[in-house]
Amino acid sequence: MNLLSFTEKGIYCAAGDFYIDPWKPVERAVITHAHSDHARPGSTAYLCHPLTKPILLLRLGDVSVQTLEWGETLFLHGVKLSLHPAGHIPGSSQVRVEYENQVWVVSGDYKTEPDGISGEMEAVRCDVFVTESTFGLPIFEWKPQQEIFYSIQNWILSNQQKGDNSVLIAYSLGKAQRLIALLRQTGYEKPIYVHGALDSMNALYQAHGVALGALLPATDSARKSLPGEIVIAPPSAIADKWARRFADPIPAFASGWMMVRARARQRYVELPLVVSDHADWDELTLTVGELKPEEFWITHGNEDALLRWAELNNVAATALEIAGYEDEEE
Question: Of 130, 144, 163, 245, which is the most exposed, with the fewest CB atoms less than 10 Å away?
Fold first, then answer.
């Protein structure tokens, strides 16, 4: 009998009586990370990594949240449960479940190249591995992070020489903080201006030791000081009247979806930045190859190519249809 099962509410462990990233309200929800397609409202009690807790409270309100450090174990009705780094965003975790000689790992979302703030994904041996597949097509192949940020530096320098604003469009949870932290790591010490929608997440990460440096609000009162400066904003802002406050905004959109030219054109951005917090095709297949599970389940995205890869490599695989899944990176 399988240790985990796929139900109308989500991935369920009957022996331990808990769900992992359920999409409907349940009694006990184990949460891999706080993006909205993995952490949904309405459950009675939540379990997550300590860095995910304040984000859950911010997004879900006054809910009951228990925390577990990476590598710490908890027993639920005899089921041994532990969390392990996923490398997706700060606090993101894989869920390891062990019971009666079965070990399952639910990855949540993950990437294997360290970004400096999210922890390094841990390879956790298991009998069955549940993998995401947001970018589960061979066309998705990321460049090394250092190469990406050299291009960002050059783009910003060019804009500064012209007195133009470098407006980096990034999702508010994870991606924005990653960009800011990496700009700091490359030696940029001046204040960075941010949209108000990022304030709460930035404050949470800074409170937990993620070094973001000096951040200032990109308000009307600051407008005269902005030419040549860096501005970070969420996707909604670029189409909003908020963006009109800048005389010469030069927008760049940071997302793995920027590899798809049609999506880049739809965003009307000057610089499509292919920067993803998810595994690309090689990372997905190499991870399964390294773990060597007896079987793997596929969730959240493109399943067909991975199913075909599994068939060619003689690995048992099953695709799961996640209710209400949206393929939009946050």
Answer: 144
Helices (H) then strands (E): counts for the chain: 8, 19
270, 238 in Cβ contact below 8 A?
no
The domain that contains 206 carries what CATH number? Answer: 3.40.50
Enclosing H/E stretch for 292: none
- Residue-wise pLDDT for 190-202, tens only, equals 999 999 999 999 9
With a CB cutoff of 8 Å and minimum separation 6, the contacts of 265 are none
- For residues 166 and 84, state if they share a domain: no
Cα–Cα nearest to 101, from 79, 82, 121: 79
Distances (CA, A) of 83 to 12, 75, 199, 228: 16, 12, 28, 43
Tell me how long the chain is: 330
Which two structure tokens, joined as six digits, stand for 231?
């501005």
Q: Are strands 79-85 and 316-319 parallel, antiparallel or unpaired?
A: unpaired
Q: Any residues with CB less than 8 A from the CB of 11 and at least 6 apart, and which?
A: 4, 5, 19, 20, 21, 22, 106, 130, 320
pTM of the model: 0.92
Under DSSP, is residue 119 helix (H, G, I), strand (E, B) or coil?
Answer: coil
Q: H or E stretch including 289? A: helix 281-291
**212 and 133 fall within a common domain:** no
Q: What is the pLDDT of residue 328?
A: 46
